[in-house]
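Lab notebook, bench 4. We co-purified these components, and the gel suggests they stay together. Before we commit to crystallization screens, I want a quick structural picture of the whole thing.
Request: model the full complex, all chains together.
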Amino acid sequence: MSGLLSVEEARARLLALFSPVGTESVPLAAAGGRVLAEDAVATRPQPPFDASAMDGYAIREEDHRAGNRLAVIGASAAGARFEGAVRPGTAVRIFTGAPVPDGADRVVIQENTTRVEDSVTLDEAAPGGTNIRPAGGDFMPGDRIAAPRRLAPADLALLAAMNIARPVLRRRPVVALIATGDELAMPGETPGPDQILCSNNFGLKAMLEAAGAEARMLPIARDTPESLTAAFDLAAGADLVVTLGGASVGEHDLVRATALGRGLDLSFYKIAMRPGKPLMAGRLGTTPMIGLPGNPVSAMVCGLLFVLPAVRRMLGLPEEAALRFPARLEAALEPNGPRAHYMMSRAEPEPGGWRIEAFGRQDSSLLSVLSRANALLVRPPHDPARASGDRVEFLWI
Amino acid sequence: MSGLLSVEEARARLLALFSPVGTESVPLAAAGGRVLAEDAVATRPQPPFDASAMDGYAIREEDHRAGNRLAVIGASAAGARFEGAVRPGTAVRIFTGAPVPDGADRVVIQENTTRVEDSVTLDEAAPGGTNIRPAGGDFMPGDRIAAPRRLAPADLALLAAMNIARPVLRRRPVVALIATGDELAMPGETPGPDQILCSNNFGLKAMLEAAGAEARMLPIARDTPESLTAAFDLAAGADLVVTLGGASVGEHDLVRATALGRGLDLSFYKIAMRPGKPLMAGRLGTTPMIGLPGNPVSAMVCGLLFVLPAVRRMLGLPEEAALRFPARLEAALEPNGPRAHYMMSRAEPEPGGWRIEAFGRQDSSLLSVLSRANALLVRPPHDPARASGDRVEFLWI
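Here is the predicted assembly.
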């Protein structure tokens, strides 16, 4: 298999075609799962004042003795502080989150007190914390959420607490999907006797959108230069053009010729992997283009291994070696050939880790198998025969 | 801590308030991540005909001998089959995915042939498979994708291949989020000196939407019956009303009183867990209501442990014990008290599994800590002291 690139080398070459897309300021409520493009910097402390962590009474530490009876001189509520000061022998009723009044340096929790009219008696002097959250204990002005970062739910809450109403995010990279082939009918149509349904573009669209891209599904391109040209025209403005099918060595391959006719600066990768025929990649003017195989499993696996990293790069996220997890092999495997094999598999938790079993049928046309898989068992080139119980590695899909 | 419910028991009681929402037929391109509500049944076989797995020549097995020279009598392309039959001594040029012509029962791959004008010579008789994908090898009429199922990208491709253009999905359950409190300002506003920013509802919204719900963020309800009443009125039509804050035992708790005034059939759970004050749950007429604590970390953890399972139930998904993963503890922990403790932690892969370290500060007001966490280390009630290297369990967040 000399002349074939490893998956890693092909991915590195392909990623060199990409750079981060532009940024946009987005309302916070719409920022979940999006990618922060500029550091978000707090301009205020949180909490903005010493705040009570409990419902109880704000007192002076010197008054903190079991049996001590204090005059209740007011109340401090969240949103409405007590404006006076706690003097010796006095207490202020206080609620969780409320500002601690001047003079007080402890909150006793209400369960440890007895209230009678305008006085409160401390039942016990509880050791330990003061039940006060100091100003700035969560964050201080200048504290930041560092970009790039994919925003998780807790990040949204933190941005809100920082009063960052419109964070600066990477815009969603736009990926145009062009399925090609005379044999394809769209779901909802009645396919002719020689036709099959177009499926790759639906799978890729869902995969790309879950990763933060916007996928534009274009009309199916037929196997004519005119139809392919029309599809490329419709892809104008996209950040990435992905073709599906037509990248093989067959005579019916027109995608390559048509793209070359439009000025494609072609890098064509022959990759030492299964599933996956040659991957086409290059630049159409300033726009990167990736040609994926037409077989559905190949298209989805190549989408995972090559297109998703490209989306991450466009989102400004660091390159991330796809995390490989160890697992215990359930059923023995034959020796692998010269190409890395990404086998459709099912991984299940077991005490202390994971067990995995590759499906018996691995043909790259079998969507029903891929749909049952939750993992790709990764076999390196020339991996020897594996016995049940061996340690192997897998990727989640 | 007698009288307190375990997390599991509180969750079971809470889930009894919920049932699956209705269904809707949705265009396939918009179905990614949604939940299939009715089995999707194939009405056609895939492939619909015996199809070539390779580019090459369709021949009869009896002609499969090294050196044999066959007359090429036509071509079968994907989408345009060869209408004749392959007779002894003949071959048909064929491309991947094309129908195999009558009479042929093997495809020889083109790399193993030599083509000269209208004849082709077989260079070698390759053993092994016929390179033919049999009709129905992927799926047959009547094969199904069983509901309920959250649709992964490969499922979308499979639905497309089955020609199911509008699968029947659960509609997205609508969750109304009501943040309460005089102390709250909305991001973008200038908070008063005693105010903090409203953050829980942004975090919850992102969490719920990632799980497949539609979150409606209502205006902040102030600590008056009128304001709370207005908020409940705005929540009309939601499948679930979630209030944030105001569920504590403090005098400023008006949420409970207002909801009771509107006919709330209250179940109030005191749960043996940290973080998390009492959880309020019940029914307002036919609409379930959950009252979450106001502290941001408590709200997010209770969202994860109680609201997400409710969303799953509304989506018709089976109850799923949150998957606990084993990990090696990095730094020793004190004995735990009588309540289960969900500690904000960082889990990182290591050879053979995961290692985890709980953050030193666990106060439920600390969003900056939650934002750095990727896991909750779960400590059962009365868990003894743990040493570095001990095996513990965690949940992903």
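Chain A touches chain B through 101 residues (CB under 8 Å). Worth comparing against the SEC data before the next meeting. The mean pLDDT of chain A is 93.
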